[in-house]
Design a protein that fits this description.
Largest sheet: 5 strands, mixed
Domain 2Fe-2S ferredoxin-type: 96-146
Radius of gyration: 20 Å
CATH class of the largest domain: Alpha Beta
GO biological process, one term: P450-containing electron transport chain
Number of domains: 2
Distance between the termini: 55 Å
Strand order of the largest sheet: 6-5-9-7-8
CATH topology of the largest domain: Ubiquitin-like (UB roll)
Order of helices and strands: EEHEEEEHEHEE
Shape: globular
Structural class: alpha+beta
Pfam family, one: Fer2
GO molecular function: 2 iron, 2 sulfur cluster binding; electron transfer activity; metal ion binding
Family: Belongs to the adrenodoxin/putidaredoxin family.
Number of helices: 3
Length: 162
Amino acid sequence: MIELIPLPSQGNALIRCWNPPSCKETVQILLYDADFLFSRGTISIDGLILRSVKKTSMYQIFVTDSIGDDHVLEYRKHEFRNLMELLADRLYDDIGECRGRALCGTCHIRVWTNGAKLGKQELVEKQTLGDQYEIFDNSRLACQILLDGELDGTKIEIIGGD
């Protein structure tokens, strides 16, 4: 039997195993499957109590959609592959026609803060943005932006494709 005990004051969770030899693999699978809740780490069994595993934090991104409404989207590290997937999941389902290959431009956004942390644009992204009706110095394709902790607090505006 496995028991998961949240320790909110410490930002950790304690995993208690009542039969250590038989539940070590189960606990490893539990932590792998729940990666969006817990950071990865080595599991060591000390008697009946497994060491605590630190909980990953939530990140936020501030989004202005194409009609001017503001949204705050929360996500966890590795919850989505890229920014486009987060936007499609939480706000729109009509972006990403090319499925994240930087070919269609339907995930065209403007990045208002933290733009330097997004990495360099690849040639295919520059070409696709060049085909858009309107392009800005801070234009990017959401499908080309990895969704990690570096984006925390970033403000973007959705432009969409032409």
